[in-house]
Amino acid sequence: METSKRGQWGSSFGFLMASIGSAIGLGNLWGFPYKMGKTGGFAFLVIYLILVALVGIVLMLGEFALGRKTGKGAGGAYTALAKKYSFIGYMAVISPFLILAFYAVLGGMVLRYCLGFLVQLFGVDGFAGQGSGFFSWLLYSEQSMLLFLLLFLVCTMVIVMGGIKGGIEKFSKAVMPALGVILVVIIVFVALQPGAIEGYKFMFQPDFSLFADGASFFEVLKTASGQMFFSLSVAMGINITFGSYLSKEKKLQRNAVMVPLFDTLFALLAGMMILPACAAFGVDYAQGPGLLFASMQKVFLDGMGGTAGNLMGFLFYFLVFIAAITSSIALLEVLTAAVVDRQLDKGKEPKRKKTALVFAVLIFAIGIPVALDALGRGGAAIQAPYELLGLTPDSPGYAMWNDCWLDFYDMITEGILMPLGALLMSLLLGWVFPNLVKDECEVSGHRFKGAAYFKFCFRFVIPVVMLLVLATQIQSFFL
Ligand code: TRP
Questions:
Q1: CA angle 100, 330, 250 (to 5 degrees)
Q2: Mutation test of ligand 1: which of 238, 266, 325, 414 has the most ligand atoms closer than 8 Å to its C-beta?
Q3: Residue 107's CB: how many other CB atoms inside 10 A?
Q4: Is 27 touching ligand 1 by the criterion CB < 6 Å?
Q5: What is the DSSP-derived secondary structure letter of residue 348?
Q6: 131 to 134, 186, 299, 310: CA distances (angstroms)
Q7: Which region holds residue 18: left if phi is over 0, alpha if psi is between -120 and 50, else beta?
């Protein structure tokens, strides 16, 4: 039987934990706080939450349903609907590929911080750095960046080679609760620091002054939409693959609500840890991708200090590392599954290990510019896109080329491929196959109560929002 060669989830709980484990990762801990910090705190938060409810949950259910109905990963699922739609599936698979390239670089940095604090625990100082200077040092240390990128990818690959059940499920179950606990401990510590209150105000005090000029509204919408795709892992085929491993008795709709719920909870926890810490320790909210590292260095080294700081630093980065690994294995899994499915379709023996290895090598290669451009700070081993093209911030088209390779990969995925994929998918599920999701949800014998809401979102809400996001992205090319 095909299913046994592809693998299936051991239990419902295992499926839920693996989906949550794949959703919760650097997107929540690293991405959400820095994007909220950069785009106005409260305003971002409100738009983000609305997008999760109207777009994220709905797309996730659609993907689970597609995967389970067709029994295929992203590539094969659309082909199974009709040959002319197969391009949507392949388009979806490009995103995990590009994302993993920068995800592994960040994951490697997390690993470096984790080991740094571990070494300091044994009394050797200076390995997790003195204050924020360490981050800049690390960005320019070519050996470290490449070594840790490689280490992170090898960890990911070894787990994926183990196969679906043995590999992913075992890993996911214990980690998320532990991560939740340590976040809460740090949140409490930060809350007790003088000045932290400003961070909560930034997040939760209603303030829409940012929207006074219309352009900012669309910027925030675009940023929040990209963050939503990234954090929930929707619109890139991953949940199609996950759904395809799910047996018919399981309730799809419950999983499609639980995963975004937990994911958003963890994003909020991360925000409530990092932004008040910025307020208390004088770190600039709007500084961009380094925010997690900069603010947490202050907490561990200056706030807690000594052995306590080193211990907490080690534990924190260890759990972030594991959370990142559970996401990266899902990213590599979706790529591997796409190829394994094709091999099965052609009647060949699936070559899972070889496929995972080939992808890991390719991803290492396209991760190199991300690892070596020092996030576009200039003067690094590899030039950022704008440097290569000789653009300055006021050159026309500067926005298109962004400021570092990470942002460039991000722009292609979050800004173009995912909104476009989401648009096409919702049109298909809303208009062309309007009963697919409902029927698949009711296969288990339960009535699907939310069907009307989901249909309305597929038909109208998601297409409109996605067109706005795409228009904002395209417009930015010309500014
Ligand atoms: N959602 C993950 C995070 O928040 C990252 C991610 C994006 C991902 N796309 C994915 C994880 C696909 C697994 C599969 O960190």
A1: 150
A2: 238
A3: 28
A4: yes
A5: P
A6: 6, 18, 10, 13
A7: alpha
The residues, any chain, with a CB within 8 Å of residue 115's CB and separated by 6 or more, are 127
How far is ligand 1, taken at its centre, from the CA of residue 230, in Å? 6
Distance (Å) from CA 67 to ligand 1 centroid = 17
Spatial distance between the Cα atoms of 262 and 319, rounded to a whole number of angstroms: 16
Report pLDDT digits (tens) over 300-325. Answer: 999 998 899 999 999 999 999 989 99
Q: Read off the amino acid at residue 44.
A: F
Cβ of residue 329 lying under 6 Å from some atom of ligand 1? no
Closest approach atom of ligand 1 to CA 26: 15
Question: In this structure, what token pair is assigned to residue 252?
Answer: 């799809």
Q: Where are the beta strands (DSSP E) in 236-321?
A: none
Q: How far is CA 118 from CA 107, 111, 124, 272, in A?
A: 17, 11, 9, 25
Name the packing angle between helices 306-345 and 86-121 (round to 10°). 150
Residue 323 exposed, middle or buried by CB count within 10 Å (0-12, 13-18, 19+): buried
Q: Is the CB–ligand 1 distance for residue 32 below 6 Å?
A: no
Give per-residue pLDDT as tens, 234-275: 998 889 988 888 888 888 888 899 999 999 999 999 999 999
- Is any atom of ligand 1 closer than 6 Å to the C-beta of 230? yes
The answer to whether 62 touches 77, Cβ cutoff 8 Å, is: no
Task: Give phi and psi for 154, each to the nearest 5.
Answer: -65, -45
Q: What is the distance between the alpha carbons of residues 407 and 99, in angstroms, rounded to a whole number?
A: 10
Task: Find out whether 136 and 92 touch, Cβ atoms under 8 Å.
Answer: no
What the block records as the tokens of 36 is 């909220």
- Ligand 1 atom with least separation from CA of 23: 1
pLDDT band for position 41 (50/70/90)? very high
Residue 426 host element (H or E): helix 418-427
Chain position carrying tokens 């829409």: 208
Three-state SS at 284: coil
